[in-house]
Amino acid sequence: MSRPTGWKSYDSVAEEYERLTPSVFGRLANDLVELLAPDPSALVLDAGTGTGTAADAVARRLAPDGAVVGLDPSPAMLSLARGRATGLVTGALPGLPFPHESFDAALANLVLSHLDDVEGAVADLVRVIRPEGRLGATAWPEDRDPPPDNDAPRARRLIESALDETGLPLELPEQGAPAEEWLKDEGNLRSVLSGAGLEGLAFEVQTYRYKLTAADYLGWHAWAGRGRYLRSVSDQAAVGRFERHAVATLEQSFPDGIRMVSPARVVVGTKPG
């Protein structure tokens, strides 16, 4: 995989991503690291580290002789990850710039869904893990009926109405996360991991509840695929009109904040000795 460019790149939204991600995905990163359970002296790779949320969760478990390396294709994201990882490397999956069996463990937190070649990426991650090392990953699970305390479906419809009223496009020309739907099937994720040689796969589904302000919900939308695409193809004035309209509509509909319920699948496997 080459470095994403254009609207697929996260470079232009790195600061918005950094502002929201620790509070939204921090608990998921902690749960992934807890299931991964790296040795305190381990050398760990955080592939697709972004601004370092998962790397920070790893670092807090390590002893002084342990280390975590964060890798990401976005230099802007990596610039905000400084201090959360022992080392930072620009790179992508597959095609890791590391020798075979370099790390004691590796993790990919909400990363595999963004890749065209999931099988190649997982095989590359397994390649750089030492025998008996562990790989941890997260992905969204299958779609479920939203619980009554989840405001996301209604908020999403309001966003789409605001886009339509502002004359902005609703659809992407192609998926920003091409493997997301495919990975929602646990069988597909299990097949990829076991096909790369991992054994003893341990799966969990965790559910996270949090609340966002209207501005933060829109900020979350802004760094997601459709938000990045809109900013790349629309003039700044039109995007500004949409954002003001969307925030006003969301604030009117959700004066106490937008309740979010987000399930996620967490899995860890071991490379044979």
**Termini separation:** 28 Å
CATH class of the domain at 6-146 and 177-211 and 262-270: Alpha Beta
Side by side, the strands of the main sheet go 3-2-1-4-5-7-6
Name given to the CATH homologous superfamily of the domain at 6-146 and 177-211 and 262-270: Vaccinia Virus protein VP39
Which regions have little confidence, pLDDT < 50, spanning 5+ residues? none
Rg (C-alpha, Å): 19 Å
What is the fold named in CATH at topology level of the domain at 6-146 and 177-211 and 262-270?
Answer: Rossmann fold
User: What is the 3D shape?
Assistant: globular
Integer average pLDDT: 92
Hey, roughly how much beta strand do the residues contain? 15-25%
Specify the number of helices.
10
User: Which CATH-level-2 architecture of the domain at 6-146 and 177-211 and 262-270?
Assistant: 3-Layer(aba) Sandwich
Q: Class by helix and strand content?
A: alpha/beta
- Total number of beta strands: 7
* Strand/helix succession: HEHEHEEHEHHHEHHHE
* Quaternary organisation of the protein chains: single chain
Helix content: 40-55%
Q: Give a short account of the largest sheet.
A: 7 strands, mixed
Question: What would you say this structure looks like, in words?
Answer:
This protein starts with 13 loop residues before the first helix and ends with a strand. It has a domain at 6-146 and 177-211 and 262-270: Rossmann fold. Strands 3-2-1-4-5-7-6 form a seven-stranded mixed sheet. Helix content is 41%, strand content 22%. By secondary structure, it is of the alpha/beta class.
